[in-house]
Specification:
8 strands; globular; alpha/beta; single chain
Length: 222
């Protein structure tokens, strides 16, 4: 369970092939890295990048337990990926990019390390339309992947701005009224407690606008 927190299943959607090099941004306990390593086989490789020693230790222990050798876990920030230019075939991520304070830098770095023709295939939380400013200001919801989520048109524009093509955002789960109440409950329950958020009012405004999504794009060959 410690290795599998996220908002989607990028390894199931990324269409990985034998011999490819995969990079997981914000790899946590390493489950998506290990699954990717099995799919690309011994002729391929899977990198995991995480900023915390605790998660890297957990990931390496999981790697040892799984007996998988074509894996390397790297310490660093997703805004400064510690890999050379054009070394990765596929970038995956599971509910991490929304947590970055500089998403443009993350996408620029992703574009840099991808090989020409390389694929960007991430699961993330995306907003459809506007959500209340109170949600954006809430650090509890930032940690919960809502407050920092990009609006889908903004996400598409930012990917294009940094050179990506073939951009698509496919909803995998849309949080409706009841699901939005669960999402917002951690930011201070109904009546405006704990940070001043009136959960019932915000639920009505947020329901249907927050979604788990699979974001695809690629780096042009030329």
């Amino acid at each position: 369970m410690l290795a599998s927190l996220g908002c989607g299943n990028p390894t199931a959607l990324a269409d990985l092939h034998a011999g490819e090099v995969v990079l997981d941004l914000g790899s946590g306990g390493g489950i998506d890295v290990l699954l990717s390593a099995r799919r690309v086989g011994p002729s391929g490789k899977a990198y995991g990048l995480d900023m915390t020693e605790e998660m890297l230790s957990l990931a390496r222990e999981n790697q040892r337990a799984a007996g998988i050798t074509n894996v390397e876990f790297l310490e660093g920030d997703i805004e400064r990926i510690p890999l050379p230019d054009a070394t990765v075939d596929v970038i995956i991520s599971n509910c991490v990019i929304n947590l970055s304070a500089d998403k443009g830098k993350v996408l620029a770095e992703a574009f840099r390390v991808l090989k020409p023709g390389g694929r960007f295939a991430v699961s993330d939380v995306v907003v459809r339309g506007e959500i209340p400013a109170a949600v954006r200001r809430s650090m509890e919801l930032w940690v919960g992947c809502v407050a920092g989520a990009l609006e889908e048109k903004e996400f598409e524009a930012l990917l294009a701005q940094h050179g990506f093509a073939g951009i698509s955002i496919e909803p995998t789960r849309i949080y409706e009224f009841d699901a939005a109440r669960v999402l917002l409950s951690g930011a201070g329950g109904g009546g405006g407690g704990g940070g001043g958020l009136d959960t019932e009012v915000l639920t009505r405004e947020v329901g249907g606008r927050v979604m788990g999504a699979f974001v695809r794009a690629h780096k042009p060959v030329a």
